[in-house]
Give the backbone structure.
Amino acid sequence: MSQDAQTTTKAQEPDDVVEVKSQSSTSGKKEMETQDYFGIGSIVLGVINLCSWFLPLCGCPLSIVGIILGVLGMKSKKYKTMAIIGLVLSIIGILLTIGNGLLGVYWAENPPDFMNSY
């Protein structure tokens, strides 16, 4: 009986190893899919940033999240180009947002002549 028990145990060991390998490859695929979504999210936020930069309270957080998603999306092989485009658009959006905020602060201290005419 002891030989049958040992044979059964040896037969089960390779199956356990195969299951562990299949679980790790499945989690790797899920991780890659998540990185794909980072690239897509980055380009979506980059396009939204080009519309919302004139409101610094909206443009700045969206730009920061777009930059983070763009950097994380660069790991994806499939959507790396989309992540780069989203990263560039988000950087342009944050630069426009900062410029708009600085212009607003300057105009608050030194109003231009066309604002005083009313």
Confidence is low (pLDDT under 50) at residues 15-24. The helical segments are 2-52, 56-73, 80-109, 113-116.
